[in-house]
Every structure is written in structure tokens, then in C-alpha cells.
Amino acid sequence: xxxxKEPHVAKFVYDFTEGNKDLKxxxxxKGANLAEMTNLGLPVPPGFTITTEACxxxxxxxxxxxxxxxxxxxxxxxxxxxxxxxxxxADNPLLVSVRSGAKFSMPGMMDTVLNIGLSDKSVKGLAxxxxxxxxxxxxxxxLIQMFGKTxxxxxxxxxxxxxxxxxxxxxxxxxxDLEAADLKKLVTAFKKIVKKEAGRDFPQDPREQMDLxxxxxxxxxxxxxxxxxxxxxxxxxxxxxxxxxxxxxFGNLGPDSGTGVAFTRDPASGHQGVYGDYLQNxxxxxxxxxxxxxxxxxxxxxxxxxxxxxxxxxxxxxxxHYKDLCDIEFTIERGQLWMLQTRVGKRTAGAAFRIATQLxxxxxxxxxxxxxxxxxAQLAQxxxxxxxxxxxxxxxxxxxxxxxxxxxxxAVFDSYTAVKWSRSGEKVILVRRETNPDDLDGMIAAxxxxxxxxxKTSHAAVVARGMGKTCVCGAEELEVDxxxxxxxxxGGQVVEEGDLISIDGSSxxxxxxEVPVVPSPVVEYFEGRMHAGAQDxxxxxxxxxxxxAFADRKRRLRVRANADNAEDxxxxxxxxxxxxxxxxxxxxxxxxxxxxxxxxxxxxxxEEREDSLKQLLPLQKQDFVELFSAMDGxxxxxxxxxxxxxxFLPDITExxxxxxxxxxxxxxxxxxxxxxxxxxxxxxxxxxxGLRGVRLGLVIPGLFTMQVRAIAEAAxxxxxxxxxxRAEIMIPLVGTVQELEIVREEADAVIAExxxxxxxxxxxxxxxxxxxxxxxxxxxxIAEAAEFFSFGTNDLTQxxxxxxxxxxxxxxxxxxxxxxxxxxxxxxxxxxxxxxxxVKAAAKAGRETRPDLKLGVxxxxxxxxxxxxxxxxxxxxxxxxxxxxIPVARLEAGRAATESTGSDHR
Length: 906
Description:
Strand content: 15-25%
Strand order of the largest sheet: 14-24-23-16-17-18-19-15
Distance between the termini: 44 Å
Number of strands: 33
Number of helices: 36
């Protein structure tokens, strides 16, 4: 007899006292951290969180879960009981905020409504409660403005224009100079705007306000800006957002009140100290929006020392508890400090590396966790150039260094223009008074962002840091006129739209014109021109050096380079390459050798073909001598000729014109006529699927054997010179084991001849490139004739998807990304479900046939952070990528290894 069990009933609402920081999937980041701070005994206004599960039900069905309203009512009753107030009652009103809170921070992308519960009746009660009529009417106009825009879809500019007119009528410049009577008039004006634009009155029922606000927050998960941000940050679209309902505390109650944002360390540099912004007599949105310029957090000590000291103690508590940089929002209500939010803060790339090593030194985290605090994308940012400090410049302003980098571009004053010009190939700087979430697409398109208002915690600064985008905020001396599309700099000079400007996100300086750039010190370190540990070593370089040492100790994957000549090979070796995973020999056939290749293609007889190959042999051999010398002691994988032969011949149109002109002059050139015939003969509709790779070696006698001989003779020469050449010969585009067996038999014979002639025993391994679906599907058979596989994921992606990369990226990839068909281009990050499954299956089948089979990847996926983790998971031995991406691959290989073993934090 089976046991009867109670059916599981979903719980959709959690009090702040019920959750903790590990419930981010359910409560979102904000709700989980509010619960954690409540558990720590910190001063958090009471409230409750509606879960992401409720949001998902709402988004899927268009209706909230049937049980949600009753759960919200029960928690609201408990909150009212605790506070001794009723939501929106006339004489002693409870007001609440309704805030979004997804698992991953999405600053400014979703909606918030403050002061829920205010109405024509309760505003008087709030005024009596606070003893401040101006405060009550200011809070009411804020609610109507925020509710109208967020919940009812009214154009926010209409409220802003009405506010500006009110200030003009009063002849004041800031909101705080408006008196209660002015704000009463503004409330009336705002309600008229709502009635006209939304077709309904502003709701006076406080519960209706709260329910509509909750639905609006749910809906904001799928706004265009939220979806764009998720695509940019690769955040899954099915997570949903939690909603936090929190009792209001007020920073706009006068000079002994205020609101601020604080960081436990500088998010721009990583340095310890007092960092953040504070704004007296203001609500939190004023700071984040950058509408009024803030004062540095350190000034709070003079304004309100008791609250300042308490805040410093709380910040230390939170950093030690989270073991990381914390980003904190707080409000002071008449001298009482309240914590409204904390989260692990976004930081610049440089700050990430500095903070990770600082926390190791403080004993808060270990090396394994330090690797999880940085990313390959951040390291790549640090390798970008910076402005030349010795260059002649014309500085016209200086703001707050919000997100580092050196950005040069044409000034544009709205997001639409930024996107439009960027798509036309122009580099642009987005210039605004302040940004808001609607500017996200322009921020993504721009090289950098410049604002005349706001601080390190404004919308522009937070979003730019998250994207790794150069940003200068709060450059007050610059007068930005977005309507006339111009910016006036001190001295009266005008920067029109389209004029070049340069911004330095590390110093906050703004320059006219283009400032030249110099290499990053991190690149100089990797190239051996700057030494970590030296007395004058750059602090950032020292941090990068330590993190890279951690990664190299932890990683299992080896990292090789894609390099075709000795110069690239030497640079790759300085960057930490452990060999060459792909040497493309076709690049050696260009330049002054093109004529020899043309003769080879035009050869009518065996003698002519053999003569061309004979002349190419010593040139090829010297290529390999130099390459093996540069990479002495490390493996070098040489890919035999891969592209179609027509790529070595002149363009068919250009050659046809030349021949036609020569014939018109009655002076035809016999060789050009033969070339044109050859071009026509070799012309293919789909050359990347035609006569190339192993097919060339089978159809053109002597081509591959010439290359194998050059490799073998070069290896023998290096070995006889006491070198240690480790050549690997890779046969491209194999689709069946029979192709590989034929080429291998010929190659083994040539190698044996060279060994006999030079008296040198060579250990040359022969393998293949897995770049066709059939090769991946028959990998077990192919492994019988191959000592290694190198996955050519560029071509494999093309053949699996049926894409021609050169065509599709320009034609429809943008639409696919915008529609969410792709989260990211499959040529940028490996398609795990399709291409990846073939890689995984081929690796498994190959090793079942040959347990010691060496496995690597040589497509550009080998330098992509996310792809490196996949290659680690499926058991490859190495990744190979362009020299500049080697440090990124090394770091991510270390991170992949530590992810698989777990870490001590989060």
C-alpha cells in the first residue's frame, strides 16, 4: 500500500527574514542579499520578496499564479503589523517601494517604483507624519512620475518638461528649491499628463498601485533594453526577475537625510579606501540617474559622522562576509542609517585583477577562488592600447574616471546616431548629459561614453564598467546640448556632432581630436619588456603576473599558437605558447613565390610540374628550419596545403580585362592567356567545398610529398645542429580514412628516404584535421591512421550549419542575434549542442581506437573564453589560437580546471 503524501505547494513570497544569499535563483540577487543583511542584523527596512518562479508563471501564462495575491496579502498584513501603519491609509500611511531583482545584476535595465501608497488623501497624512509638507508633495510627484512612465507607459520626457517649466517659473535651477505650493501644482500637472497619455486617472487605491507595479516589474524582464543587455552579458532569458516590496525610508526629508552608493573598494582601480557618492535630501534614483551631481562619500563624515562611522563598520562587515568588493545602496532618514541593497560589485578589468590578489594576501580567498574572480575577457581589455602621455594634446575637460580605456571617435549625441554611424564603420563617442536605460544600444555601439553629469555610481558608469567600455562621467565644465547636437567646452569652443574627440577612462580627461595610443603595459609584460617583481613594476602588471602564475599551475589544457612564420612563433612563445597548433603553409606560397605556384598550376607535363616543385622545395625547407628553430623543443603542427588552387591565381575579372586589353592592342601575352584558361578551369561554384585540402594532395602528384620532404629535411637539419625539432604533419579536410591512409603511406616513404639520406632518426607524427561532419562521425576509423586530431572548428562550424562565414556574418547574423536565435555568433563561441557534440563524440571515438591519440583544436574558438571551458570538459589536450589571445586561453584554461574542482566561495 503506497504512502499518501501531501502535494507540493509552491511558495511564491518570502519575508526578508526567511531567505539568504544562496537563494539567488529563487529570490534574485537583490532579495537574497536583503535577506542576508537581515540575517546579519544590519539595519534593513522590513519587506518581502516575490520569487522568480512567480514571474515565470506570469510571463508564461499572462496571469499571476492564483495563490500569489493571497500570499502577498498575508505578507503585507504582517508588514503593516510590524510597522504599525497601513498601506496608504489617510492618517498614518505605510509606503513601500516595488523593485526588480534578477539573479544577475542588470543595472537600470528593469523597473522600480518608489512611494507606492501615496494618494490625494494619504499625502496629507505623510505631511503630518513627517512634519514636512514639501517632502510629502515631492514624494507624491515622484510616485506619479515614476508610476506613469514605468507602469502606464507615459513618455518620461513629458514629466521632465513639466518639471523644467516649474523650475523656470520659480526661477530656480534644482528640484530642491521648489516649495510645497510649487510641488502641489506639479502633482496636478503630472496627473493631467497621466490622464491624457494613459487614458485613465492615476490610481488612488494603494493596493491597485502595488499590484500594477508588481506586474510592471515582471513585464520589464522582457523589455527591449533588458533583452539587449542580457544578450550583451550572456544572461539566460528564462530566469525571470524577483520583485522586492520594501517599506520606504526617506532620504528627501531635509539636510539630515540623504541617499548614497558606496563601494568597499574603488571599482575603477581596486584600491582600498572610501569610495562612493552621497546626495543630501534626495531619494536613491537621483544618485543612480546622475540628475544631480553628488559629493564624494568621504564628505559624509563632516555631514553626519554617526551615520558615516556606522556605514564604515557595515562595509567592513559585508566585505569580510562576502569576501569580495561590495556595492552598497543606503539611505539616511533624519540621522538613521538604512541598508537598501548590497551585491558583489561590478568592477573594471584592472580592479578585478588587483582585488583578487589583495584578497589572497588578506587570507580571505585562496588562489583557486582568485582565478574565479577574473576572466579572459577582462584580461583582453587590459591588453588594449592606452593614450600616449607624451603626445601633444588639447585637453578641454575632466570628469570622473568611471571605466578605464583609451577611446577615440566622432562625437554623437543620441543612441540612434551612435548605432547608425557604428554600423557604417564609424568609431563614435556617445556624449550625453546623463544616460538612462534607453541608451543601452548606443552605449554598446560606441567606443566610449562621456557624460556631463553623474558620478562613479551613475547609470553610465555602472553599465560601462559591466561592459568593459571606456567611460568618463560628471564632466561638469562641458555644456552638452543634445537638441542642437553640440557640446561647448571651456573657452567657448563648440564640438559639433561628427567632430573627433578622445576620452581617457583612467584619468577622466577629455581631449579634442585624436590622441595617439601606445601599447598596454600588460602587453609589454607578456612580451618581456616589463618585468613583474621589479622595484618599479606596474602594480597592475604585478597582479596580472600573479594571476597568470596561478592559472599556469592549475590548468591541464596546454596552449599553442596559430603561427605561420618565425616572427609570429617567437612572439607567441613570449606570450606563453607551448608550441604551434597550426602552421598554415599556404601563407608561405604567396609573395615572391606566386610565380612558381602559377607555373606549378599551369604545368602541362610531369617534367614541368616536377621542376616547379623542385624549385619550391628549398624555399619550403627554409621556412620550416626557421620555424623549428623559433619553437625548438616544442611541438609544431604543420598543415599541408589547404585552400583551393585558384586562390593563388589572379582575380578572374581583373585577368579577363588585362587579356582583353592586350588582345585589343594585338599584343596578347601567352602566359596571361594560359593563366586565364587555368582560372576558368579551376573556377568552382563553392570552392570551400571543392578541390582543396587532402583532395589537392591526391590529385596533384608530388605536391604533398614535396611539403613532407621539406618538413623532414628541415627537422633533420635542426636535429643535426643539436636542436630539438618536434614536427607534426597535419593532413587537412579528410573525410574518410582511405584518403588519410594513401597520403600517409606516401609521407612515411618520404620520411624514410630523408632518414636514410641524412642518417637521422626522425620522430614525425602524422595526424589530421577534423573539420568535416563525416570525419567527426567516422573518427574511430580515422584514428587507425592518425596519431593526432586537431579540430578545425571554423570549417566544422561552416559545414555543420551550412554557413559560408564570409557571406552570412554580413547578411543575416545581426538579425539572428537581435531575434535571439543566436545568443552569440557560433563562429565566436562554439555551438556546444551541434558542433560541440560532434567534437565530443569524435574525441571519444578516436580515443577508443587509439588511447594515446593527441587531441587539440586550432580554430579561433581556441582563444574564446567560453569555448576553452568546453574543450577542457571534453578532454582535449590543447587549444591553439592567435598569439595575442594566448594569455586569455592560458587564464581560461586555469579557470576551467579550478571550476571542475570547485572553490571556497559563492
